[in-house]
Amino acid sequence: MAVCAHVSRVRSLYKRILVLHRFLPIELRALGDQYVKDEFRRHKSAGPKEVKSFMTEWENYKNTLQTQVLESAGERYNSVKFGDHLSHKKLNDFQDEQISQLYELMVESTKSKRQFDIQEDRK
Q1: φ, ψ for residue 113 (rounded to 5)?
Q2: DSSP one-letter string for 51-115
Q3: Which of 11, 22, 31, 94 could be 98's S-S partner, Cβ–Cβ 3.0 to 4.6 Å?
Q4: Dmax of the chain from CA atoms?
Q5: C-alpha 32, offset from chain centre
Q6: Taking each helix axis from N to C terminus, what angle separates 26-42 and 96-109, rounded to the nearest 10 degrees?
Q7: Cut 0.90: pTM above it
Q8: Averaged pLDDT of the chain
Q9: How open is the CA angle 52-28-110, to the nearest 5 degrees?
Q10: Interior CA angle at 42 toward 5 and 113, to 5°?
Q11: What residue segments make up the domains of the chain, in order of their start?
Q12: Closest by alpha carbon to 10, among 39, 36, 38, 40?
């Protein structure tokens, strides 16, 4: 029973984050969606301690993004800043692999020339 509740909680968080990504500029949405999918997939077989930390951090991300999306309602995308600064304490707690992933994410999100030309579907 506890396993079912945990799986439901993980799926709910995952889906909520993807829904919130719909409000991001298209290039950030594509990058964010792929990152979320990869991270959740990567942590499917994580241990209890790692899962607790993983869920806490993704809940924090969801809450921050939700607040920023609500604050951005009615604003123009290019005037809205999404994201948050990482404290030195949090950075010091990261493993080498996480630092590497964070660097790759930063490089990809700040590229002036995107690898793909992503366009929204017009309905």
Answers
A1: -115, 110
A2: HHHHHHHHHHHHHHHHHHHHHHTTS-GGG-----PPPHHHHHHS-HHHHHHHHHHHHHHT-SS-S
A3: 94
A4: 48
A5: 5
A6: 160
A7: no
A8: 83
A9: 100
A10: 125
A11: 1-75
A12: 40
Residue linked to tokens 């990058």: 31
How far is residue 14's CA from residue 47's CA, in Å, rounded to a whole number? 18
pLDDT in tens, 83-117: 788 888 888 888 888 888 888 888 887 776 555 55
Vertex 82 angle, CA 66 and 10, to 5°: 40
CA distance between the termini of the chain = 43
101 or 66, which is more confident: 66
